[in-house]
Amino acid sequence: MLIKIASSNIRKNFSFYKLYIVSLTIIISMYVTFQSFAHDTIMLSKISQDGRVETMSNTINVFFIVFVIFFMLYFNNFFIKKRSKELGVYSLLGFSKKKVSLLLIYESTIIIISSFLFSIFAGSILYIFINKALFIALEINDASLNQIINKTAVLNSFILIIIMTFTIIISNLYELKKFTLINLVNYSKKKEKTIKNRPFVGVVGLILLIIGYSLSINIINLEESIWKKIGHMPVALFVLCCTVLGTIIVVRYSVSLILSKIRHNKNMLYTKVSNIVVPRFIYRMNSKSKILIVVTLLVSGTITMLSCLLLSLYFPLKANERINPSVIEHTLNNKEVTSNIKKLSDTYDFNSSKTEILQLKVDLQINVPYEYTKKQNHSFDVISYSNFKELLEKQGNKYNFKELKSGEGIFINYYPNDESLNQEYKLKLGNKNKFKTIKVVENTISNPISFQNSLATLVVPDNDYDNMKLDDSIQRKTIFSLNGKGLRHDKEFYNKIHKIIKDTDKGFTSSYARNALIKEGSSSTFVLLSFIAVLFFITTGNMLYFTNVVETLNVKDEYFILSKMGYSFKMIKKIIRREIALMYSIPLILGILNGFFALICFRYMLIDTLIGNFSILKLPLIYTSVIFVIIYLIFYLITINSCKKTILEVNSI
């Protein structure tokens, strides 16, 4: 009988339960998709050679289960509160708490199993598209999907379902055990506990965030930073504690404090929208703050993870533009190689440059730059100013250097610093007792030749260079550079050049080959962290969507009263938009701020300074913010639409 009652309840209240079913289906579908990837032997054999993917998959699996448990516990409370009067009626009709508990268990089991069955299909279909996309993105041509529905993924998802079911059962038993009959009947009308204004605590939260952000910025000072003096790990832990604790306090107390200030400001409060939104938001802040705190931390984690992921992928590809500034470099100086490369010019639009490097030592190795000492045979690689300018322009790099006077030079740093600026170096010109003093008037990280072929590169005026190279005893080497628009990523061009240039050429470098190596090495990390980011997106979106829709259902009578007071449906829609905007904007603003400063810490703690300091953060942060705002906006619009339909469906207005 209880099973029939449970089935009947779900059918009659399907408009309410469908929200729960859809949310669970989306989350479990993501889990099925992830498990299908984690147990796709063909895919793993292509991208995982050291078991790293399998280890990370197991770790993510634990995090996913924790998220699902939180999701189930939080939203199960909504259903208990929504149905408390109905459960109280069952008790009045003679149902014992045991039978009421069994009724809830049957309902939860039906909902979870239904979501599971939908998820197997949806998750498997989704993975087919993801699998195809991965094969294309990773340029895997000799493999295909081994099975449409992965049995191991289904089994692991079923285990998750069992965990979810037991979680709900334990939660329901706990909730029912602490209620008497009268409390259960009146639970849905239980007065919301209001948060007391605590200005001091609210200010403390803001101060903690400011401290965390200030310390994050301080890491930019590198050697002079507190991070270097105290140690990265202690400072990082302190920053994390300040940011997390500050975020919790700001959401819990500072937001309500700001809204209270608005409520006491007549000009800001007494409008048709604010007069409803602000007091009601403050009144429900106690319950809303819990979900806002969790969502804000999830948003912070998602933005941090996604921006750090993009930075981790962007940095080596961007760094390769410095490490291998030309499309191809080689050192084979013979007619056969030159002739075969020239034949390719009929098919490909490229240019060839020849650079003769003079290898000169200094008379006294005092205050020589870091790069000079790291070479096996200590020396400067001297090139002419015109050759430097020509290469940069052919590589498509910005050129903004002033003309050099005799005795002046530009030093090309490996890492950005001013160590050699204004230093004078007395260069030995061959075996004879001749010297040339060059003063470094400018430092740059715009190297025209790969570091494999030239390190400690010194650019000198053409006249000085021509005079230096007259001495035949000076050691020198020749570098040939090939450049052309779109050829850095042209696999076919690389293969044809590689056939011409022998593997014995130690000076051979290719931007395409290194990019391919970088993509292959980071593909598994990219895929796994992308799954985590998507998981966080879905989780936060579901929480906010579900919270707002259920809140709208709970206060539908209030909207009916507003309509009787003269509020038009257009004005009520505006109130709904404003309330939902508050719920979405708080986590978004704090999340982006937390993510931005976390990205700064990540960049200076773990990312090399090869291509500069702060500028590299722009692209990952912009992409992350745009992606997150777009997805957030989609969830926001879906939520508004659902809330409007909810009000219309119940004929409240």
TrEMBL record:
Highest taxon in the source lineage: Bacteria
Record's keyword terms, sorted: Cell membrane, Membrane, Transmembrane, Transmembrane helix, Transport
Subcellular location: Cell membrane
Spans through the membrane: 20-38, 58-79, 100-130, 153-174, 195-215, 235-259, 291-315, 526-546, 580-607, 619-638
The keyword Electron transport is assigned to this record: no
Membrane topology (UniProt): Multi-pass membrane protein
Domain (ABC3 transporter permease C-terminal): residue spans on this chain: 59-178
InterPro entries per UniProt: ABC-4_Integral_Memb_Prot, ABC3_permease_C, ABC_permease_BceB-typ
One Pfam family this sequence matches: FtsX
Primary localisation category: membrane
PANTHER family: ABC TRANSPORTER PERMEASE, ABC TRANSPORTER PERMEASE-RELATED-RELATED
Family membership noted in the UniProt record: Belongs to the ABC-4 integral membrane protein family.
Name this protein carries in UniProt: ABC3 transporter permease C-terminal domain-containing protein
